Amino acid sequence: xxxxxxxxxxxxxGRDRVSALRASFDALDIDAFLVxxxxxxxxxxxxxxxxxLSWLTGFTGSAGVxxxxxxxxxxxxxxxxxxQLAEQVDNSVFTGGDxxxxxxxxxxxxxxxxxxxxxxxxxxxxxxxxxRLEKALAEIGGSLVVLPHNPLDKLWSDRPPEPLxxxxxxxxxxxGVLATEKIATITADLATKNLKAALIADxxxxxxxxxxxxxxxxxxxxxxxxxxxxxxxxADLFLDKRKTGIEAEAYLAQMCVQLPPSELEKKLAAVAKxxxxxxxxxxxxxxxxxxxxxxxxxxxxxxxxxxxxxxxVKNNVEINGSAAAHLQDGAAMVxxxxxxxxxxxxxxNEIEMAQKLEAVRGRVGxxxxxxxxxISFDTISGAGEHAAIMHYRVTTETNRNLExxxxxxxxxxxxxxxxxxxxxxxxxxxxxxxxxxxxxTLVLKGMIQISTARFPKGTRGCDLDPLARIAxxxxxVDFAHGTGHGVGSYxxxxxxxxxISRLSTQELLPGMILSNEPxxxxxxxxxxxxxxxxxxxxxxxxxxxDMPMLGFETLTFxxxxxxxxxxxxxxxxxxxxxxxxxxxxxxALMPLIHDHDVKAWLENATLPLEY
Length: 611
What we know:
GO molecular function: metal ion binding; metalloaminopeptidase activity
Largest sheet: 6 strands, mixed
Mean pLDDT: 95
Helix content: 25-40%
Number of helices: 21
Keywords: Aminopeptidase, Hydrolase, Manganese, Metal-binding, Protease
Radius of gyration: 25 Å
Strand order of the largest sheet: 4-3-2-1-5-6
Enzyme class: hydrolase
Strand content: 15-25%
CATH topology of the largest domain: Creatine Amidinohydrolase
Shape: globular
CATH superfamily of the largest domain: Creatinase/methionine aminopeptidase superfamily
EC number: 3.4.-.-
Structural class: alpha+beta
Number of domains: 3
Number of strands: 28
């Protein structure tokens, strides 16, 4: 099994652990310490040995920062995790902070005491973060203290070891472009910019450049590794040889020198010697690494990770692979939803739902000779009030049955060698209320608006985000997460820089894969989300237009619960899209399904709606 449902949060220890942390402040000459949910590689998913925020507070969400001062302990989270935070931490020790509207640097500028000295682990903060903190502290006469070690690591006596997941080659039939070609493109760009080298600090970029995958962290198949690519065409890959077998080592030897991670600092200093200019992405690279360059006499040339945008713009092989993975995943989802429709309310629980879906994905993968490699994130399996927790993670303690008259939300994804999937479906258990149906239909309207959007080149994610919200806004409600995130190609299910959100200024380019997932959540009552993956493509000219346009192509095929839709609340165009989507879903998935009952369910689930 890929997902554990045991309780991993430790709120009962929060008071003692915060007290122990504060006891170290005098020796470190600090008044506060920041604990981000991050590892030395700045990834979203981190190995068990880097779950410092969870160990300290009990909060297990994928984004957050704790600020512990001598008298306060604040955990900053975004809107997805407000409810989860309140349930997981000891509220007599920790208070909640707003990671979006008043993140730690803003909180310090507004509330920090005069002369406050804040300690950080320089490996867990990017250069951009450090600058924001330094500026905020300067406003209150304070200072940022870069510590030589992380004080939590001395307190965490049973800290797990660092991972040694095995590395695999991502063959050209999945990658589409040779690693040597990717390296050559990067080195040519470095030469034109008079840069000596580029530091590749993001493990997903390392995996994409070298066409390798790994198993170091849950659900994201990249190895924890860094690289230096030189303007002269050479490359050093800092990857523990305990992770690579003979085949992988022979493959890598064709394009780079594989070195132990412990050699990185020495090599980086050597590149920086005599004023060498090194390209560093300030948003993805630890402050500690940039400081190594500066202290060696080099120049940090800040710029985008050279793989970030090329990795986001998928080539035809990657798009076709993703499409194939989504058809396979759609067949598994249909089998799962058919099974759910045959269960009686009150007889299955949230954990059983997640386990069943994972088992079906595994079985379908074996039958189609494209095995399930992993889930792409911990499945969100929430019934009733739990569905209102945007990133709810069911445990043996919170597990409950699916009861009649409520909504069930399941947000899940899979990792296949040819693509990464992410899909959310909300279904009614038995007869549900008209209110459930009304809000489901409003969410559906937003999802359709994104699916059918046509937009000029240069359009950004923030320009499209309102389309998903207008119907909800008219009803006086909204949702506290972005409409869509980027998705990798057998890599991270959350990939930048592409997004559809209020904050995204990245231009949407053909080949980018994104999620389309508006929702509505009523705390303590119910939650709704409908999610498909889409990709940007050139749009055909219609209605005599003379301007090049872009649009989206849908990758995900799986029925949307038609029993929750109020047809009269859809426009004619929206109803036409809905029925057309179901027709395409039926045509695409029916050949992949062999069970008579599942075929019959799919036929019924995709019947057209009428006014």
